[in-house]
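In this section we turn from sequence analysis to structure. A common task in structural bioinformatics is to predict how a protein folds when a small molecule is present, because the ligand can shape the pocket around it. The inputs are simple: the amino acid sequence and a SMILES string for the ligand, here pyridoxal-5'-phosphate. Study the lines below before reading on.
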Amino acid sequence: MNRRDWIRNTAMSGSMALMGGFGSLYALSKEERQKFHPRPLDKMIKLSSNENPYGPSEIVRNAIRDSLDIACRYPYSYADELAEMLAEKEGVAREQIIITGGSTEALKACGITFAANGGEIIAGRPTFLAMMTYAKQWGAEVKWVPLNEKKEYDMAAISNAVSEKTGLVFLCNPNNPTSNLLPKEILLKYSEEIARKTILFSDEAYYDFIDDPDYPSLVSMVKEGKQVIVSRTFSKVYGMAGLRIGYLVTTPELAEKVRNNVMAYSNVPAIQGAKAALADTEFYDFSLQKNKEAKDMICATLDELNLEYLPSQTNFVFFHSGRPIHELHRSMMDQGVQIGRPFPPYTDWCRISTGTLEEVGLFTDALKKVYI
Ligand SMILES: Cc1ncc(COP(=O)(O)O)c(C=O)c1O
């Protein structure tokens, strides 16, 4: 029996917790399975979209079930309640929070508010594309600034690129797809400089995964009244990607501009789920712990195969595949594993998301088959 069949059989028989060998490595107790809901093992192991393989948690599921009784109503007053909770969490006023349908809606809303009709967005390349792709359809221009030799945002070059035309600078930190984080001093120095000249948008989708508990969020600059907008999401650490809920934190003035320009929405089940998620610290801690374990497994295999990778502060790893990503994609699909898409100009690098430990075990087996 190969590992895939073995895992499937043991998972189905519910006996993993009792097994020795690599079974005990993967095992979740019955209680953990009930509380944290690992996704079931699929035929195709999809590690291509940086989704949390756990969740929504049992507490969130219960809140969503209960929310159906009020789902005949529009979401506004429930969104206001969530905004109140988030304002308290972030230390800002309620009007400084905008609840959105995933942070993708937040990115789109800001792109068109501040750069449509000939305005310019400056962004590092490669990065998460949603804002730029959407704003271009509304007449925005995008000035791309390549990452530096460490594959970090080149903040000096970005700051120098700001002109009269610039409506917004887009920063994604930690960055997707590279997974790395700007050094604190560089982040703060250049964010101050950029925000004096134009609006700085900080996409903090992966902020919760950062190891350093003192690493600053740019919400600190929002609190100082600087021209900064921060986006956050419930898709990643809270395991709610399919529910579509995220939010913006910004100054009252910028929040008003976004509100006047775009109506952003989430929905009642997602909002009620998000409220419950904020209080579910057990799931939050579990997510972070499992993500670390999965990343350690991935990195150990990359070390074994002598494949270079960047230090990850996210729920994915960016590694030097050393072969064209299209080819690797095909070979891995043949092994039943879907890896991340190409991220030009790094077409011989691969982004792999963390999964359950069972899924990651299947990924590492497949990678070894393809490379050895
Ligand atoms: C950097 C970054 N921002 C935003 C998103 C969008 O997340 P969502 O729309 O699910 O909140 C993603 C999703 O992968 C991402 O990687």
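Residues 50, 102-104, 128, 172, 176, 203, 205, 233, 235, 241, 246 surround pyridoxal-5'-phosphate (CB under 6 Å). As an exercise, try to locate the residues that line the pyridoxal-5'-phosphate site and compare them with your own expectations.
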